[in-house]
Amino acid sequence: MTFKPYPHARGDGSLGDGLAMLRARVARRIALGPYSRRVSIGFGRNLSVAIEPPVAKIPVRLRDFRPDDLAALFPSGGDEAAKRERDDVEWRLRAAAHGVLPSRCYVLEEVRSGRPCHVQWLTDPGYGDAVRRSGALPVLAADEAMLENAFTPKGFRGLGAMAAAVYLIAERARSLGKGHLVAFVDADNAASLKAVERAGFRPCSIRTRRQFAFGTFRTVRFEPRAGAVGRGARATPRDEGYGAHPGDGIQSEVDAREAEPPDAD
Ligand SMILES: CC(C)(COP(=O)(O)OP(=O)(O)OC[C@H]1O[C@@H](n2cnc3c(N)ncnc32)[C@H](O)[C@@H]1OP(=O)(O)O)[C@@H](O)C(=O)NCCC(=O)NCCS
């Protein structure tokens, strides 16, 4: 739910060569502005603890993504946000096929019509350092996976599709041998916050990303959330810009100047 790759990035995560890359970087930096700050809440769920399944207001089922889902999820004439999401999905499909993103794409479909009503990704450990740093992602343990990039087309919003999808993807993860799931949700995204909580996730950390001088300097800070339990609760707050926090599976801070990101969300 956190990684927004640069839409024109190639499947291997790079921005391309020569002038195209330069243009892309300049546009990205201008869009960032002189300073910005983005706060996300880190959520976790222990899959050995059963929860009451959230019920959507329409009958739904989960399945793997199919190429014809793209047009149904993102019909032509959609708004800018939907176009960006489509770019994300296309980038992720290329990156997954290329092997740099160990991520699976799931679609929730409405049973009656068969129409896709939600798309979301489950990412395994093993993504490359460039991807991890650019998305400010944690290092995942072998039995962990991460939910990312949830999207519900406008006509299906508010029907409980995201909550149902998060729950059903967690069940898939369990059947794949996972014991713990994590997700990062922007602190101002009320619908997503509610959906992951309905699907049994509990807040355990706060991630603050800052950038200065049009992206020249970036910092990422992870802090535990008061009252958090479970793995995420082991993180401790640190000053920004240095080092990693061993043992909690989450890199506590990254000086993102180390990596030129393929994205810049
Ligand atoms: C965020 C998003 C995926 C939510 O999808 P959804 O299928 O509508 O979510 P749900 O129907 O499961 O809604 C979850 C809860 O949030 C509520 N909700 C929905 N939209 C809301 C809004 N704008 N403000 C506050 N609450 C909202 C729902 O009523 C529901 O609460 P309830 O269970 O008490 O009824 C969808 O709005 C979307 O695609 N947004 C654009 C992309 C995005 O922000 N992705 C998330 C990245 S983390």
TrEMBL record:
PROSITE patterns listed in its UniProt record: GNAT
Gene source species: Methylobacterium tardum
Stated name of the protein: N-acetyltransferase domain-containing protein
Residues annotated as domain N-acetyltransferase: 60-221
UniProt GO MF annotations: acyltransferase activity, transferring groups other than amino-acyl groups
Comp. bias (Basic and acidic residues): 254-265
Coiled-coil boundaries: none
InterPro entries: Acyl_CoA_acyltransferase (IPR016181), GNAT_dom (IPR000182)
Recorded superkingdom: Bacteria
Residues covered by region (Disordered): 228-265
